[in-house]
């Protein structure tokens, strides 16, 4: 597994404060929120209690109190800018205040009733002042210039500032609350009854996996299910076999593909969303075709969320296996939250699904009609290697077969060699990571055999009629003479160094194939 949330229109909630009576004219710049000049933030001539400042419903703690001048409320410079999430600097020599946020730049000078906002001159109703070493600025002007809403509560003698970010956040929270309240839990049986016909088995000329019907012509699956496939069929839960036209959309990074059928599907499409509610510990249900057992249902929990290379994965304890790739992971509300894609053999049930949000973006790019011309993914290997040099073949093997993901981990292969021997055989060899082999050698033999046979099939396709020997070797140097090995497997290197080298995989082919794997 080479493991989006909904892009919110919110930024981090920013606290802000203060305000000043707007000034006449406003800001003459489309990128800057106009500062109202119709009303001034004025307190009564005699204030019974000090002015309080709230930003996004939180009261600001100020070491020096705000005051009014010429009917305008002024507040300490740095707290207001900080609360609004803006940067601010003070140039003592010129007594200039410079603040900025989200592309808005504000410049004011002490004693001057003119400010500069994004290069435009704006008149102020009250100039910044310095009192007892503290610089004060007109609160409303600063807040509204930075696109915040300002209200004066004369009864409370308080200023309330609300940033756009906070308004958006409150709206989002209300939407989520309303959506959560409208959801209805399903039993596993009810969920399966609703979506069993929406999950299919995909068989290609290279692999077997699962798929999710997401449209009249479209099925969602994993990229690796369709990789290097030149043909594919879909088998529905009713046993119908349907031909695949090609791949309509693909995201290799997220390991997702949407395939297009030649004929319309008679199945319930699964709706795609952004999975805004999932939490660790939530129950989930997986439906897929592990080991070819069509539409097998299993359940478990969300164990974790993982982010890798820009892709969000859901870790789950719901059992899956080979053939489950491209299957569905639902929550208890019947919402698709992930596409099952990988697992690690362990008693801990470590399985993974690609978050549905990645698929939602892909489906949205397809439009409403099937594409007129679709094709399968370009093959990762060339159509032929006939006539290519040994160096070219060696580079190809190193690029495409230097590692393989096995149940016990990743086996790596180095020191690739391609040579033609005196009998005309093309001998291709590589060394397996000795530490990995020493740890897992006996348990990976069957997987190494399958991996090697797949390589043999590709080599036979690219080099038809060629006599090929494919060797995987163990090669390591020790500070002692290893015992219990054949004489030709142990070599004295001198200086009390000994080399142990033996063949792990020996595969030979010319149209047909034989293979021997060391346990």
Automatic annotation (TrEMBL):
Keywords: Hydrolase, Protease, Serine protease, Signal. InterPro entries: Cu_amine_oxidase-like_N, Mao_N_sf, Peptidase_S1_PA, Peptidase_S1C. Coiled coil: none annotated. Pfam families: Cu_amine_oxidN1 (PF07833), Trypsin_2 (PF13365). Residues 55-161 form the Copper amine oxidase-like N-terminal domain. It comes from the Bacteria. GO terms for molecular function: serine-type endopeptidase activity. Residues 1-30 form the signal peptide. One of its GO terms (biological process) is proteolysis. This is Copper amine oxidase-like N-terminal domain-containing protein. It comes from Paenibacillus radicis. The lineage of its organism: Bacteria, Bacillati, Bacillota, Bacilli, Bacillales.
């Amino acid at each position: 597994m080479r493991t989006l949330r909904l892009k919110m229109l919110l930024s981090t909630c920013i606290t802000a404060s203060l305000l000043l009576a707007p000034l006449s004219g406003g800001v003459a710049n489309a990128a800057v929120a106009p500062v109202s000049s119709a009303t001034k933030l004025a307190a009564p001539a005699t204030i019974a209690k000090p002015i309080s400042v709230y930003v996004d419903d939180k009261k600001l703690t100020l070491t020096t109190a705000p005051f009014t001048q010429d009917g305008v409320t002024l507040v300490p410079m740095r707290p207001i800018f900080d609360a609004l999430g803006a940067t601010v600097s003070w140039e003592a020599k010129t007594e200039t205040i410079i603040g900025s946020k989200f592309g808005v730049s504000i410049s004011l000078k002490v004693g001057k009733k003119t400010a500069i906002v994004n290069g435009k001159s704006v008149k102020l109703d009250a100039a910044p002042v310095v009192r007892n070493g503290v610089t004060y600025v007109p609160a409303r002007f600063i807040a509204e210039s930075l696109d915040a809403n300002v209200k004066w509560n004369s009864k409370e003698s308080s200023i309330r500032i609300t940033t756009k970010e906070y308004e958006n956040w409150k709206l989002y929270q209300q939407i989520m609350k309303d959506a959560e309240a409208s959801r209805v839990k399903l039993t596993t049986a009810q969920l399966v009854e609703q979506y069993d016909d929406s999950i299919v088995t995909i068989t290609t000329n290279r692999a077997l996996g699962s798929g999710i019907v997401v449209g009249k012509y479209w099925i969602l699956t994993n990229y690796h299910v369709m990789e290097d496939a030149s043909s594919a069929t879909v088998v529905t839960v009713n046993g119908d076999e349907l031909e695949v036209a090609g791949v309509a959309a693909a995201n290799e990074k997220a390991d997702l593909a949407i395939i297009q059928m030649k004929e319309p599907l008679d199945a319930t499409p699964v709706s795609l969303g952004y999975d805004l509610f999932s939490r660790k510990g939530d129950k989930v249900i997986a439906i897929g075709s592990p080991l070819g057992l069509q539409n097998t249902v299993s359940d478990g929990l969300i164990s974790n969320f993982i982010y890798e290379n820009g892709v969000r994965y859901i870790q789950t304890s719901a059992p899956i296996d080979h053939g489950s790739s491209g299957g569905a992971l639902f929550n208890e509300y019947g919402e698709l939250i992930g596409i099952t894609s990988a697992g690690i053999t362990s008693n801990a049930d470590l399985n993974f699904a690609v978050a549905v949000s990645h698929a939602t973006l892909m489906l949205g790019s397809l439009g409403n009609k099937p594409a007129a011309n679709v094709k399968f993914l370009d093959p990762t290997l060339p159509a032929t290697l006939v006539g290519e040099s040994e160096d070219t073949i060696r580079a190809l093997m190193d690029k495409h077969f230097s590692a393989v993901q096995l149940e016990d981990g990743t086996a790596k292969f180095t020191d690739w060699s391609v040579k033609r021997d005196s009998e005309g055989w093309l001998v291709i060899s590589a060394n397996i990571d000795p530490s990995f082999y020493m740890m897992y050698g006996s348990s990976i033999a069957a997987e190494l055999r399958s991996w090697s046979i797949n390589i043999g099939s590709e080599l036979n396709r690219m080099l038809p009629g060629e006599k090929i020997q494919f060797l995987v070797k163990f090669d390591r140097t020790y500070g002692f003479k290893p015992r219990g090995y054949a004489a030709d497997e142990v070599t004295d290197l001198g200086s009390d160094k000994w080399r142990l080298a033996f063949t792990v995989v020996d595969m030979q082919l010319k149209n047909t194939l034989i293979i021997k794997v060391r346990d």
